[in-house]
Amino acid sequence: MKIMVCLKQVPHQDARLDINGDGTWIQEDNIKFEINSYDTYALEEALLIKDAGEAEVLVVSIGPDRVTQALRTALGMGADRAIHVNDPEIQGSDSLGMAKVLAAVAKEENPDLILAGLMSEDANYAAVPPMLAELVGIPHTTAAVKVERSNGTLTCDREIEGGANEVVTLEAPCLVAVQSGLNQVRYASLKGIMAAKKKPLDVKTAADLGVADQVGAGAAKVSVTQIAPPPKGDTAELVEGSPDEIAAKLVTKIKELGLL
Amino acid sequence: MAGFDGVDFLRLDALLSDEEKLARDSVREFVSREFLPRIQEFVRQDGAFPMDLVPQLAELGLFGANLHGYGCAGMNNVAYGLVMQELERGDSGLRSFASVQGGLVMYPIRTYGSDEQKDRWLPELAAGRAIGCFGLTEPDFGSHAGGMLCRAVRHGDGWLLNGTKRWITNGSVADVALVWARTDAGIRGFLVETDRKGFEARDMKGKFSLRASITSELFLQDVELPEANRLPGAEGLKAPLSCLTQARYGIAWGAIGAAMACYDEVVRYTRDRMVQGGPLAGKQLTQEKLVFMLSEITKAQLLALRVAQLKDQGELHHSMVSLAKRNNVDIALSVARLARDLLGANGIVDDYQAMRHMLNLETVRTYEGTHDVHTLILGKEITGLSAL
User: Fold this and answer.
1) What is the pTM assigned to this prediction?
2) Does B34 participate in catalysis according to the annotation?
3) DSSP letter string over B150-186?
4) Is the pLDDT of residue A72 over 80?
5) Structural domain of residue A209, as residue ranges?
């Protein structure tokens, strides 16, 4: 069985973010990056399947040189090999452009299962996984909080509104975009990190994958025109007093606002 | 602390390999998520370690990480040092646990043990299924270890051990104690299974320092041991001293971790703490302290990194480790004291880290060669004259 896990490297959750010169993205110089946390759950789910039996876990990521670190971490956690699509021409792609790159990888690799995080913590579109599934022509589900396999069928619990779960079955090959918290993500062990040095990490460009004309800002139908910090509010109200008093005042306030 | 991101003013990260950074970051994350949320609970006890974390520590490969074979990660000494730094960023007790297991028990078995001893103990110790302790110091012999009273005498084909060891990390939770004892032929090392008749470990209570670490006293009364339990390669005091060089090397890095934790905490605190209409960080006296801390941490990092490179090249002299341990622990203690100062009254409670690190570092300054002993080792190195 072959499992492809899509990883995105995003700014570290504690990084201080400043907006770049043209106001369309953040300053990426000298901030730390990490694997998108939703994707770490997808990776862990793949590694659990590998631990339980025979599976090859392939991790794929798109991005500049710094992405090597994310892929090496994934290899250190136990993935078997990595593909790094590193091509400045891809910069400026919209979700569809990214999905096309990943679809090209998936078509070359023919995985039995593609796992991805539900969304990325930076851009937050939650669009790439369903697009990728459609482009590859396989069924998919999203927001999975439990994944079970039986022969070629996957049964997933997925989170829906109101805290309820919906149970779906999919025939492999298929794609599952996972919700966070569905497993306990492991740490890369020191032995794993040493072993990762010898694991293959292939670097490809959009041209290698035959999608050079479908990616980048030129091909994008959605482009970011501006990002801005939220405006400073002047409606904040400080609630003061003892903990009991504060709690009572808060309850009153929440009732006043009709939220309770 | 949530969001700890290290201290790297001179962009030393650029000098590290991918594996070195990954090892550091993985341990950093583990310490932030699994260890630090529980430190307060353990510090409030009197000599207790979160033993349930041991399987996870082993799984991460933290025991004997720079040793090769026998289930060890085989990392270089830069990565090993960074790992020690991150553990001590959590607490000196956590780093001590790993230092003792790896540097003081696994290293001597790896270096001086028989194949049988290696096969029996190293995989178990690496996997955390067995815990080890190192018995060198005695109630009356600390810095002057060569004066030890613990004796091993011939008893049939084997040995009979008698003596007391004190200040022994993990003594009461150990499955095996590496006990150094005087024989007619000089000092030798013995692997003592702690369930042997005549062996007893009692915990030492009332410590102000290293509260999240188990410290014991070992009593050996007519403990019978087969010859197979003696480390065949260890002859004389230089054997235990070589182990201490390993552990001291880890301390030189660990102290940077403790200092970084204090610095990180106090920079955040002074930015947020309002004093006379502005942040405490905006005051001249505060800035002078912060600059001292950053400068000393940066110098300590450079020192540790160079010592690590020399160790990997096999060019390291033990006096270089003395210089690094002496300096880095000293500055870490100064950093912790200044940080506690800046935290004001908040600095005396365990919601903040500085005082815990400060108190721990008093021990770290004392063990594995006191500050003064390292001064005299270096003094001898400079002058050729021993003042010890």
Assistant:
1) 0.91
2) no
3) -EEEEETTEEEEEEEEEEEETGGG-SEEEEEEEETTE
4) yes
5) 2-214
